[in-house]
Amino acid sequence: MTPAMPAIHPTVVHMLAAAAEAAPDHDALVCGAERLSYAAYARCVAAFARELVAMGARGERVAVVLGNSPDIAIATFAAHAAGAQCVALNPAYTRHELAPILADAAPRIAVVEAGGTADDAALLDGAGLRHVVRVGAGARRLTAWRDTSLPGLTPDLLPDPDALATLQFTGGTTGRSKGVELTHRAVSTNIAQREALLPTRPGAERVLSVAPLYHVYAVAMGLHLAAHARSTLVIMPRYRADDLLALLEAERITLFAGNPTLFTGLMASPRFATLDAPSLRLCYSGSAALPEATLRAFEAATGVPICEGYGQTEAGPVLTYNPAEGLRKPGSVGIPLPLTEVQVVDIETGTRVLPPGEAGQIRARGPQIMSGYRGLPAETEAALRDGWLWTGDVGVFDADGYLTIRDRLKEMIISGGFNVYPREVEEVLHRHPDVLEAAVYGRPDAYRGEAAEAVVALRAGAAASAEELLAHLRDHLARYKVPAALHVVDRLPRTAIGKVDKLALRRRGG
What we know:
By secondary structure, this protein is an alpha/beta fold. It has a domain at 412-508: ANL, C-terminal domain (GMP Synthetase, Chain A, domain 3, 2-Layer Sandwich), CATH 3.30.300. The chain contains 14 helices and 26 strands. α1 (12-22) packs antiparallel against α2 (38-54), α2 crosses α3 (70-81) and α9 (260-268) packs across α10 (292-302). The longest helix is centred in the N-terminal third of the chain and has 17 residues, at 38-54. The mean pLDDT is 92.
């Protein structure tokens, strides 16, 4: 049975204001030597929000192009408090990548890293911005109001729950990036939904965020989770395995939101063998499928469970999670959140709801679902049909109602008339002791229509050949699922958020 939901805050700004009132002196943000209490956090958010309001932010959009720091946390909440949509963008994007997104978003104000890629006069002028706020070294810091006597989050800075809160751009790996529009109510509801399956302890958590805080996963499982729990968010500016392991110990981290890349990288570090982090009680995994072999190896080494979940930007973002209390199924992404319906329907017509054990396309509905894609009515209509969000993912329910993701519908390979799911092949490769990471994707094939191709990175000191790995696959998979080619490489290419970049692999031919 799905647990009951806690109370829902009207907006995340109301949530932060409640935390500041209940625990004003508790550490809210930690980043290196810098520490902000909840009272100081709320003052900084309120002061910057008032500045944004004076610039005309209400009803507009504010682009936030910052790396991990207290500044991005403050800027994100301040954009909401100013009555604007927050448009968080990757500061590592090139001008070529930023220009079309800024044109789509049409922000009135941009908050950018001083001297960063986005701090470019031609780019910013071309975007038609009214104001640019430069933050960082040699510029200003949004923590400047921490020790002032300015008021905190007064009622004039508490936004309308039904107003648009976020404009989050999807990755655009198959074409134009799409701006997902979410209301304050959708975002705030999703926090409470997640809390039902993964309850936090008010005032007692120490949450480590190394995933980039411009990304929806890090916001949901770091920024918002910590504030809801009136607990401490420890922000890591950039990832390095040994530094992360040291922070788990030094900052007595209790909750850590990772992804497959992070868990793999941590276990590959020599320091992992001596990790001493008794406070760590739970890890989350999201943003990409976690190989079951990786999950089991991490849990065996640390004794700390990993709860894997599933969602997407369009879903606010969380749809399912393995519960922290009760039955947890490694390899699955858990059960639907409260107030959320998830169905698996046939791929061909989308009209037949499939029984447990049959794979099909996943669709979902609930109060956390997006309003639509900004300025893209045809794409919105295709994604939101008959009251459902059509996710584009392939999955299967088991008899207990636990969902397992097979693959992206667009990544499914049809080889000689048979469906081949790359994730299934990748899971088998990960079972080989020499394999560190694996990626499988489809290529045009004159005989089969499509054929699977695999790229594998080996563990340090391992020497498995391509033929040995193909033989391993033949021992565990039907012949039609075995890749036509397999390449062994030093490392797999990554997207900006750490996912394996299969598009780059296709382009370069393995």
